[in-house]
Design goal:
Elements (H helix, E strand, L loop, with lengths): L3 E7 L6 H12 L5 E7 L8 H6 L3 E4 L7 H15 L3 E4 L5 H10 L4 E6 L10 H17 L2 E4 L2 H8 L2 H5 L1 E2 L6 H5 L3 H10 L8 E6 L8 H13 L4 E6 L5 H10 L6 E5 L4 H5 L4 E4 L8 H8 L3 E5 L13 E4 L4 H11 L7 H10 L4 H12 L1
Parallel strand pairs: 1-2, 1-4, 2-3, 4-5, 5-6, 6-7, 8-9, 8-11, 9-10, 11-12, 12-13
Helix pairs in contact: 3-4, 4-5, 10-14
Length: 370
């Protein structure tokens, strides 16, 4: 049987919620039926590139720059035609308009635009609004399947069309990894960072160091806790363009012994297993995978109210707060850090019921790709 060839179009395959979702799919999809390629907008090597190759995937790095639009589209059409893709699945928000146009011109049968963000929670410039108007028209005209991680993320990109034709597809998590936490590694983490007391509050955040993740707010929280003589540590997992800026702020506030910036790590669940409270003060999001992973790990979560309410899977461990009052965050941290964690079996059953497990998502993707 001839394989179905799928092009996943991404900015890059570095650590991030969308990229982690795609890797969960690649690790678990039937490779006898599907051949998955990743088309990246960057030339440098990315975090997941080696694993993609090891799993039988293919990586294509675009040579043309987006600003040379005609050359860029020409290269896309050539790639789509040469590889004879059955499916082009774009994860690049507004930029998907160009991808869908090129895919249609190349004769690709199944053209999927996938929204991973709700951009309606922030104020946009006039130039952005014009760009969105143009790109949305291309997306609606040349896509033939509309997918989003949440209802808000779908409406944000597709408008009213999403309520008529859209499909909500949750980002999958690997429940087996949560079931099999490496206790030796957890103990190593505790020893490395001198986590020796149960009286210490362990806070955590996982996300790229970019403006929308609002790391500065996390540092301000840490500063207040420090001034109150609270015994705590805050883990910031991830990397990105603002990493050094945040590191400088941490140093300025004399918080080096309290804020741990790990960079990208592969054992995220091991770190989550020691967290008392997971914090996500994002300026906007779709349905963030790391917040789902935190809940799956049984960690109490405080999320900004810019994040979709659908992020709460119903375990009773999520609190949404406004970014306008940081003191509310401090109060909730002190309350939630004392709560006991939920039984793993209850969590596992809830994740399967809400279709966050990888097998459920693979089945939904197979319907889309066929």
């Amino acid at each position: 049987m001839e394989k179905i060839k799928v092009a996943e179009f991404v900015g890059s395959m570095n650590c991030g919620g969308t990229e982690t979702m795609l890797m969960n799919v690649l690790r678990n999809i039937d490779k006898e039926k599907y051949e998955i390629h990743f088309i990246e907008n960057v030339s440098e090597k990315c975090w997941y590139d080696d694993e993609i190759i090891s799993l039988g995937g293919k990586i294509i790095k675009l040579k043309s720059k987006k600003r040379d639009i005609f050359k860029y589209i020409k290269e896309l059409i050539k790639i789509f035609q040469t590889n004879k893709y059955n499916v082009v699945h774009s994860h690049t928000y507004l930029h998907s308009g160009i991808i869908m146009y090129a895919a249609k011109k190349a004769g690709v049968d199944i053209r999927i635009t996938h929204s991973h963000s709700n951009m309606n929670t922030i104020k946009h410039s006039f130039v952005y609004r014009i760009k969105k108007l143009l790109m949305t028209r291309l997306i609606l005209k040349y896509s033939n399947k509309f997918v989003a991680c949440s209802k808000e993320a779908g409406i944000s990109l597709f408008g009213k069309e999403f309520e008529k034709k859209g499909i909500i597809l949750h980002n999958p998590i690997e429940i087996s990894k949560i079931d099999n936490i490496n206790r030796d590694e957890v103990n190593n983490i505790k020893a490395k960072y001198s986590i020796l007391s149960n009286n210490q509050i362990i806070l955590g955040h996982v996300g790229r160091f970019i403006e929308i993740k609002n790391h500065k707010f996390l540092v301000e929280i840490a500063k207040i806790l420090y001034d109150k003589n609270i015994n705590f540590k805050l883990f910031l997992l991830g990397d990105g363009e603002n990493f050094e800026n945040i590191r400088r702020l941490v140093k300025e506030y004399n918080l080096e012994n309290h804020i741990i910036m790990t960079g990208n790590v592969k054992n995220v669940y091991d770190y989550m297993s020691i967290m008392d409270v997971f914090l996500m003060p994002s300026l906007y999001e779709g349905l963030p995978l790391t917040a789902i992973e935190a809940q799956a790990s049984g960690v109490n979560c405080i999320l900004s109210n810019n994040i979709s309410p659908e992020t709460d899977v119903g375990l009773g461990i999520v609190k949404f707060l406004s970014l306008s009052n940081i003191q509310n965050w401090i109060e909730e941290i002190l309350i939630l850090s004392g709560k006991e964690k939920i039984d793993k079996e209850i969590i596992k059953n809830k994740m399967i019921e809400e279709k966050y497990d990888t097998n459920s998502i693979i089945k939904e993707l197979e319907k889309l790709y066929n």
